[in-house]
């Protein structure tokens, strides 16, 4: 019913890392570059981060954690399900599918709380959370501060901080907020796995790299290793990796990734917290089921 859309699409759909052509004369003049500079086929910023982190299959999940969370998994089979974006065919080569999901609110929740306290720094709040026993805050946070993308796909769900009493400190709340965000990530990952996907490790990009509280909670709640690449700007770096293929520096994208992408460190999950966080995640999902209608009603209050 929208035939005019075809006129807006390019006539040739070329794979990432292929050569689109050379700079036009006018573009070269504006940029101060020679007109024979090759132009590589790229993609949207999040998809470029896959090359920048090296999360190119085999159960390696690209996790971009910032204001929101984007989760991307390259697989060899399509998977259609609630809250999953796509799957997108052949983004990263013939026979591949890209599954994508995520959370609307993530780091923005931590920043919101920081701002309510008069804008202290995150480092001070992380230090306060260091003194709190992981998984034992007595609090449960729902991360739907702006609705939910995966798996509920419901813009009217709202967030919550449950279990507050007078003993709770800034550290308790900050720790619980990080855990609530991580429960939301686990909910998204399990939605992917319910469709047949397999996630063995989490490769990290975005501002979460600088937040040890959020990083540790995510590793422990997902019970997967969190891989921290050397390069901090995954999308920009991924664009360079892809451009190197079009420029002929490497024969394939995998060769470029093998040569250019390096791992700085790996955060291993604390297996001793598995049962604690399994219980917490069970409560998280149970509260969504029990209180979802009330949360949606609150979203309608002017």
Entry summary:
Helices cover 39% and strands 17% of the residues. It is an alpha+beta fold. A hairpin with a 3-residue loop joins strand 3 and strand 4 (69-75).
Number of helices: 9
Distance between the termini: 36 Å
Return the structural class. Answer: alpha+beta
- Percent of residues in helices: 25-40%
Unreliably modeled segments:
none
Radius of gyration: 21 Å
Question: Helix and strand layout, with pairings?
Answer:
Layout: E1 19-22, H1 25-31, E2 38-40, H2 45-53, E3 60-65, E4 69-75, E5 85-89, E6 97-103, H3 107-116, H4 122-130, E7 140-142, E8 160-162, H5 170-193, E9 201-205, H6 212-222, E10 226-229, H7 234-246, H8 253-260, E11 263-267, H9 274-299
Parallel strand pairs: 3-9, 9-10
Antiparallel strand pairs: 1-2, 3-4, 4-6, 5-6, 7-8, 10-11
Helix pairs in contact: 2-7, 3-5, 4-5, 5-6, 5-9, 7-8
Description:
- The protein is globular.
- The chain is built from 9 helices and 11 strands.
- Helix content is 39%, strand content 17%.
- The longest helix is centred in the last third of the chain and has 26 residues, at 274-299.
- The protein has 302 residues and is of the alpha+beta class.
- The two termini are 36 Å apart.
């Amino acid at each position: 019913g929208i035939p005019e859309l075809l006129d807006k699409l390019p006539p040739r759909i070329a794979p990432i890392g292929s050569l689109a052509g050379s700079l036009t004369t006018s573009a070269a003049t504006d940029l101060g570059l020679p007109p024979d500079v090759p132009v590589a086929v790229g993609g949207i910023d999040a998809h470029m981060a896959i090359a920048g982190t090296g999360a190119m299959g085999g159960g390696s999940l690209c996790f971009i954690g910032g204001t929101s969370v984007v989760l991307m998994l390259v697989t060899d089979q399509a998977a259609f399900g609630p809250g999953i974006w796509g799957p997108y065919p052949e983004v990263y080569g013939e026979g591949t599918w890209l599954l994508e999901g995520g959370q609307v609110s993530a780091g923005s929740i931590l920043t919101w709380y920081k701002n309510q306290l008069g804008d202290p720094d995150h480092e001070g709040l992380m230090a306060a959370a260091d003194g709190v026993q992981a998984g034992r805050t007595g609090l449960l946070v729902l991360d739907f501060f702006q609705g939910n993308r995966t798996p509920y796909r419901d813009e009217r769900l709202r967030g919550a901080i449950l279990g507050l009493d007078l003993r709770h400190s800034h550290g308790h709340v900050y720790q619980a907020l990080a855990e609530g965000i991580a429960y939301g990530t686990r909910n998204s990952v399990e939605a992917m796995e319910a469709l047949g996907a397999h996630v063995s490790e989490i490769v990290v990009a975005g501002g979460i790299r600088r937040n040890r509280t959020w990083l540790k909670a995510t590793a422990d709640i997902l019970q997967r290793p969190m891989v921290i690449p050397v390069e901090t700007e995954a999308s920009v770096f991924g664009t360079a990796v892809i451009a190197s293929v079009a420029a002929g520096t490497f024969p394939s994208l995998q060769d470029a990734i093998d040569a250019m992408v390096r791992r700085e460190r790996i955060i291993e999950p604390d297996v001793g917290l598995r049962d604690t966080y399994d219980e917490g995640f069970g409560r998280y999902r149970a509260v969504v089921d029990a209180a979802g209608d009330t949360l949606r009603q609150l979203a309608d209050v002017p």
